[in-house]
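DM between two lab members

TW: hey, do you still have the Malate dehydrogenase entry open?
JB: yeah, one sec
JB: this one, 310 aa:
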Amino acid sequence: MFSRIARPTLCIATRSLSTSSQNNAKVAVLGASGGIGQPLSLLLKNSPLVGELSLFDIAHTPGVAADLSHIETRAHVTGYMGPDQLDAALKGCNVVVIPAGVPRKPGMTRDDLFNTNATIVATLADAVARNCPEAMICIIANPVNSTIPITSEVMKKYGVYNPNRVFGVTTLDIVRANAFVAELKGLDPARVNVPVIGGHAGKTIIPLISQATPKVEFPADQLSALTARIQDAGTEVVKAKAGAGSATLSMAYAGARFTFSVLDAMNGKDGVVECAYVRSEETECKYFSTPLLLGKHGIEKNLGLMPLVS
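TW: and the structure you got?
JB:
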């Protein structure tokens, strides 16, 4: 099973070259002026899967939209700024991607982000529930382990909750695992596929190195160090940026990859599988990341867990 998960067969620039009549999706990015939002919006603008790109933030969005609108790709870009324009930004959206929120700084954990980002995400989820309740919701804002339950509860309040359409984007964990394993083994990272399950913070990130394709093996000490690096990779970037921010470019790539997979599946492509943090019955945890088969209406099947190798 795991040979099919978490790694698209085509690169991010080419895998969306579909001719489906549904390649007119309206995608909203909430938090489009930020460090993740801008490169994420650029990648989405470059995709023929996107017909309309709706950008929202509390500041600078008209400039970001104007800049992107000069790019010679088909997606029509509109910028919306401030709370008064949030509803308009969401009208008719098929997919909503939410990178909004404050970034991590040195010494901060994802839990430290909770008080600020929880309020931001709850406010945005409220607007989604009122304006495009059928949309696929892709949450990037940290802490994902908390912002997904918050989003779910807001949608329940309006009676529009569909657990098959609410995703915590954990794709960066898979992207990092693939890159780090490939680096250690001298492999092409585009052909490495490491499933990562659990959550999206520290020890809750569980890379299944034993299920990687191609099959790889590491001595116990190296495996332990590799696992720790994958789990702490966000902190690695925060420290390297020395107070100037957190992972933005790699997160934008991962967010775009997941969004393209959702759009591919909505367009009827078969066999689209990604890991994401969702409402789950696979473990005792109410929310858990496992491989998901995506379809036209969101999660088609939770592929669950294979027997794990210690």
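TW: got it. Residues 114-131 form the longest helix (18 residues). The chain is about 35% helix and 20% strand.
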